Amino acid sequence: MSEQPQFNTTGYYFRACAQAYGDMRYTCPGINITAQYQAYNVSTAWNYLWNVTDPALAAAGLGVTHTVELNAIFGPENIPGSPPASYFPGGVNAAIVPVIQGYWSSFIRSYNPNTYRLAGTPVWQTQGTSLGPSRMVFRTNATAMALIDQAVVRRCNYFYSIGASLQQ
Fold first, then answer.
1. Contacts with 21 (C-beta within 8 Å, 6 or more apart), sequence order
2. Torsion angle of alpha carbons 92, 95, 99, 100, nearest 10°?
3. I need a labelling partner for 140 at 20 to 30 A (CA). Which of 53, 118, 132, 167 fits?
């Protein structure tokens, strides 16, 4: 087992448990649902990984939290509460805001995230490619399509195999 970063408010297995929970609850169901669309020849299913790290959340040991991308989709100034400072103009993640807004507004206008996407951003392909399952990986200044890592596929296959017993 590789050493995981430790944080004052978490236990030794926090990172491994957080990864397992994220895969089981969010990542694997998303991959499975898009794969089912593809299996039924529905060509309008896009998948993504939001891998935009906020320095304050990372320092607290939280990594990329569920729904944090809403701060970029709607703009941090339009989100109630305390959006991460990194999403505001001048923040380290400010550049991701117009990228995701371009895809989302394009989808709203045309049911396709690519039609009106921000100039210079990559084409967001549907999940399946001839090379294997893929998704858009959002990273500040490095957004790109990427194959879904085989380790993720193995973990998801395991969760699918025990899903009935978990009642998921």
1. none
2. 30
3. 132
Q: Could you please report the per-residue DSSP string of 94-106? A: TTHHHHHHHHHHH
Q: What's the pLDDT at 23?
A: 92
pTM as predicted: 0.87
Residues 37, 13: Cα–Cα separation, whole Å: 35
What interhelical angle do 28-39 and 150-166 show, nearest 10?
90
- Cβ pair 40, 168 in contact under 8 A: no
